[in-house]
Amino acid sequence: MKPFRYRAPLSIGDAVKTVEPIGEGGQGGAFLAGGTTILDLMKLSVVSPPSLTDLQKLGLDEIRWNGDVVHLGARVTMAQAADHPMLKERVPVLSEALWKAASPQLRNVATLAGNVLQRTRCPYFRDNISACNKRNPGSGCSAMDGINRLLAVLGTSDHCIANYAGDFANALLLFDAEVETESRRGERTIAFDRLHVRPDDRPERETVLAQDELITGFRFTLPQWARRSHFVKVRDRESYAFALTSAAVALDMDGETVREARIGIGGAATVPWRAKEAEGFLAGKHLTESVALEAGRMAFAGATGFEHNAFKIPLGQRTVARALLETAAMDSAGTGAGSN
Amino acid sequence: MAKEIGTARNRIDGRSKVTGTARYCADFAVPNPLYAQLVVSTVGKGHITAVDDKAARSVPGVRAIYTHLNSLGVRPAGFFGSGQGQAQQSWRPLSGPDVKFYGEIIGMVVAETLIGAREAAAALSFDYVTEPPAVTLDSPGVTVEPLQRTELSVGNVEAGLASAAARVEHTYETSANTHNAMELFATTAHWQGDDLTVYVPTQWVKGFQSGLAKNLAIEPDRVRVLCPYVGGGFGGKGSLFTWTGLVAAAARELNRPVKLYVTREQGFTVASFRAETRQEVKIAVGADNLITTFVHMGHELTSRPDSYVVNGTENSTRMYRAENIKAAASVVHADRQTPGFMRAPPETPYFFALESAMDELAREIGVDPVELRIQNDTDKDPVRGVPFTSRSLVECYRKAAERFGWSRYTPGIGSMRDGDDLVGWGVATSTYPTQMAPCSVRVSVDSAGEARVQTASHDLGTGAYTVMALAVHDKLGIPVDKVRVELGDSRLPTGTIAGGSITTASNVSTIDIACDRILRRLGNSDAGQVDIVAALQRIGQSRIEEYAEWIPPAVGEGGAASLRGDAVKIVGGAEKQYAAFAFGAQFVEVRINRFTHEIRVPRIVGAFAAGRIVNEKTARSQYLGGMIWGIGHALLEVSEVDPRTGAYMNDNIAEYLVPVNADVQQIEAILVPEVDDKVNPAGVKGIGEIGIVGTAAAVANAVHHATGVRVRKTPIRIENILTS
Amino acid sequence: MFSKRVSPSKGIDDTHAPKPGFSRRSLLAASASAGASALGSLGSARMSFAAPVPADQDGLVRTAITINGVEHALALDPRTTILDLLRETLDLTGTKVGCDHGQCGACTVLLDGKRVNSCFVLAVAADGKSIVTVEGLAHPDGELHPMQAAFIEHDGLQCGYCTPGQILSAIGCVIEGHANSDAEIREYMSGNLCRCGAYKGIVEAVREARDETREIGIGPREASK
After folding, report:
1. Residue B589 and residue B596: Cα distance in Å, rounded?
2. Nearest-Cα residue of chain C relative to residue B658
3. Which pLDDT tens digit goes with each residue over B292-350?
4. Inter-chain CB proximity A6 and C184 less than 8 Å
5. End-to-end CA distance of chain B
6. Which of B113, B175, B600, B649 to mutate to test the interface with A (most CBs of A within 10 A)?
7. Contact at CB, B655 and A2, closer than 8 angstroms
8. What is the pTM of this model?
9. For the purposes of burial, counting CB atoms within 10 Å of the CB of B1, is it exposed (0-12), middle (13-18) or buried (19 or more)?
10. Which of B156, B261, B470, B649 has a CA 20 to 30 Å removed from the CA of A1?
11. Which residues of B71-101 are buried (b: 16+ CB within 10 A; e: fewer)?
């Protein structure tokens, strides 16, 4: 790890003012929240920021409710949100996406904003050696013909198939959340589904955030029926593993008929992914197993498989179907699936 | 005095482990140390054309940078696998510009601080001329070497296959695995004058001592290797690491203690691993379902220079009756590091094949898989016709079957489905040869009523400390908490390498001899009935001490010489007038969600018979740990090699998956009583490795039962059973 | 609410008072060596009574951390993780390094009462905070924390290398309220890999020590007497 300057400013204004712009070697100052991504990548020499601006004295660590409007501070930890009684009751999919991620130790420090901005686990990005358009623009992609089992099948480009590794964002995406940010240019609000950008021909760019732009919180309005929501995470081992595929589902049901469905997909896409066509297809449908499987197929309609990860297409379809059926089987109080 | 052997005792070293006072090798404080950091190759084959150390040298506090251009002159210690030395592989890092595999040590940085060493190591850069490496069993450019010494032939296999009532013939594969003990491969070297103390995690302090002396061209007496606690071995710390000599040589040159942490990522390549295998198995039966013919051919990957082979056919051919037997192993030389021991090195891969094939045979002929194994049990070694010292396989099957509830088994594929869970049951046989080695110990007793046992053996978490205290207690009547056991120090009498599950059998047999001598000197030959304090008073001495050696009879000539520490003489298994093996049976339930097909093992029962059990508590833990390793081998573990480069792409323990707590639900080990008065004086068989053997096949067989998909390669993952 | 042994005093002088399980000599050496070197001096055991280096000189950051009830005044290279600090500067080697990437849990400590991977927290970011390591669990008279005792009794360990992290994680698991069933214990103890496979004994140990741990928390047994 290269030396860096450390500071822990007392205000957001100071934090965004002092973070260095990108300079030599493409490295700029970085914000330090929980540190579980940035310190990892610094230890691997994948990133070498000249400074870390620690956010721990900025507060931003509250969960607030105003009627159906929820505000999550950027520095709320994953554990704090996962265990929050209101979130567990009103929107179980968020809690579940959180406690099924990482480990208790990591969730105690990792923050919601940091988690949303979690970097890919693509081994060719992380090895700091291989050709990688994300790490070293224009160098090529070693993953496409490599060990790509964990990588994306949705949202890929000819330049990058790195997966988005997080879970929480795929659940948050269901509720049309807004991201609140602050930079030297002031505050702004970004639609959560616009925050991440697909790799296309610029895989080095992962979000629309400016380099000095700090996420301060997330805001969303919860429908009553978010109680009927659920997160299915498919992974090789039972815990402490990244998703091969995941599905975040919320259902507004009228008996056995779907009024409205929301589906987020993880583990299989380059960015947090919402399956809007499948959602539209489900509206007004009687949710049978075959309808659920059809929705799964629609969700992966545009997917591209590679040598080791093509199985994620059928697996992802089934993950969506399973999540839909398990969510539908929940009672409206939000129990019956994924409780722990 | 109540005998303690056979009861369930807490570990005598438990307190030090739960309070953090147990010092593992990286935990020893040395005065004013420098820190070393390894640098490894980032190409799979080629040679280094230039070293750029400018950036590395500019890091504050850097004291030395070693590459092949200024190597430390470490001399060879001989490749352990050749029987001619102690080293993990036959060549040494920094000995030239050639790169033989991806992740090979090509440099070492030494700095004042750990942080500085890390920074400088990251800044050291190399230019290479590269060639495409051949890194898998199928890569163009590998060379195949049949090993004549492994060939085994009984009866007429061709005739047996031709006349069979039924037969199965299949090819099975197992993947590369990495030990990933929780402890990193740390090494600290501290010179005091001409005397060197090395703290290095090892399963063989004496071998490391000898090898290091050769590395450094000094007398072995000048080298002390200390490793009182090992943070998991599993075979990965059995032979001398290539970097240990580098660290010691750097400490000598820089005249400061040097401390090295090998990173988790580097551990995937600078140490050994379990190589991938491909095996052909043929089993033929007569109309009576009895096996007539067995063929088992293995192919194992190895490095370019070293013919490392595990050849599990030595043991697979001893499992069931057969008149016609043919077996052999070949090695495939590739551009990878030299493989090495990993928990049950031969049996783990080879019993995946054998016990999968047995299940396929049971399906083929419509016989219950438990019954098939019981019917084909044999009371003599099918290869040499000699009897077993003891063999309780059938008893293990009966005990485990009863506990598991096998009577509720229905053979139809998918027939045991439970809601959204596809449920499958599978069984497999476990075995491990009973092995022993020459051993020496020193036991003393004193007028305070305390005893001390000293031997350069090891406790890898196996419970050896406690077992040895129990052995002394039962012989001398000294309370267990008054027995001090000292292990893991090369200055102690030569003990045993912690490999081949030999520790308890060899050490307890030797301790018994020493204790008997003490009793004789105290004028009392009645073990356990003597008042040591009174007896010492009677002879007017404050303390007496006995040194004893035990050479297993099968070792023959050279046994005593081997106690000088240069070589390992492990004997046992299928040798001499008896065949000596421990046996077990494992029953597994898998549950597989019918949509997403995650394979989970909610229930596993193993029954094992291994002679006399010294400490029921730690023995059970050994079995359970082995079974969990088996679950990992079956479903999770694979070191993913990029065939283009030879790089392990999951060289971390977030993506090299081992079982976590949530993967283990109901798990049970049954200790089947067994008395064996032939195997060794202690009546003990090794238990450290048998638990992993067969587990993966039991899982595979259960997966087949649940889904109808036969997966003949480990690990078995979702994509292998996901039918559209 | 957590460590009962933390002194309310923040004064440096307080560190000179003998503390259980931590000799005055080693304390001074540790604090001084970290402050005395321009590079953080990880691993240095040089004895010195020099005052801590002021903040930001040579890039060092002045940091005060309470560890097992003892306050340490340190001047640190910001790259130093809590793990590095404990092991290489303070000779608190009960905390183990298993991966250095937050993947194994061997380095788990309690930071302000919460379990964290100490390899993933910068020591400078722990300024003003309190850390409990495995060395801080047993009572000075030698009586073990109930979780430690339960790990021995249920053989929730083999090689012992992951054990300090397991025990601290187990205490954290109970305090968080995630030890209510075996299934929950298994899930919430999955951040601690045990390569030996002692999971069954670990779950039994957490179950057994749960109620007593709820009562006394992290602190030594005397707190409950």
Report:
1. 18
2. C195
3. 999 999 999 999 999 999 999 999 999 999 999 999 999 999 999 999 999 999 999 99
4. no
5. 66
6. B649
7. no
8. 0.95
9. middle
10. B649
11. bbebebbbbbbeeebbbbbbbbbbeebebbb
| More confident site: C108 or C55 | C108
Does residue B477 come out as left (phi exceeding 0), alpha (psi in the -120 to 50 range) or beta? left
Which amino acid, A131?
Answer: A
Residue B128 pairs in a beta bridge with B48
Cβ–Cβ gap B14/C99 under 8 Å: no
Reported as half-sphere exposure (CB side, CA atoms, 13 A), residue B193 has a value of 2
Give A58's Cβ-side CA count (13 Å radius): 28
ipTM over 0.85: yes
- The C-alpha atoms of residue A178 and residue A157 are separated, in whole angstroms, by 26
Count of CB atoms situated within 10 Å of the CB of B421: 16
> Element (H or E) spanning C115, and its range?
strand C114-117
How far is the C-alpha of B178 from the C-alpha of A206, rounded, in Å?
Answer: 34
- Angle among Cα B245, B248, B252 to the nearest 5 degrees reads 135
B192 CB-side CA count, 13 A: 6
Please provide the size of chain B in residues. Answer: 724
- Match 């190399």 to its residue by tokens: B126
User: What's the order of all strands across the beta sheet hosting B581-593?
Assistant: B421-433, B581-593, B599-609, B666-671
Q: Tell me if B126 sits within 8 A of B60, measured CB to CB.
A: no
Q: Please answer yes or no on whether C176 and A104 come within 8 Å at the CB atom.
A: yes
Tokens of B100: 């033989």
Largest Cα–Cα distance of chain B, in whole Å?
Answer: 83
Structure tokens at B489: 């120090």
CA torsion sign, C149 to C155 to C158 to C163?
negative
Q: Which of B183, B347, B689, B719 is catalytic?
A: B689
Chains that touch B (3 or more CB pairs under 8 A): A, C
CA distance C80 to C76: 7
Answer for the pair B318, B381: CB distance below 8 angstroms, yes or no: yes
The token pair at C204 is 């039994």
A32-61 residue pLDDT tens: 999 999 999 999 999 999 999 999 999 999
Q: What average pLDDT is seen over chain B?
A: 96
Is the CB of residue B439 less than 8 Å from the CB of residue B509? yes
Quote the Cα angle for C193-C197-C203, to 5°.
80
* CA gap B175, C104 in Å, rounded: 23
Residue B107 amino acid letter: G
Q: Which helix (H) or strand (E) holds C215?
A: helix C199-216
CA angle (C144, C147, C150) in 5-degree steps: 90
Tell me the residue length of chain A: 340
Please give the structure tokens belonging to residue C197. Answer: 């496979």
Q: Identify the pLDDT of residue B319.
A: 97
B253 has catalytic annotation: no
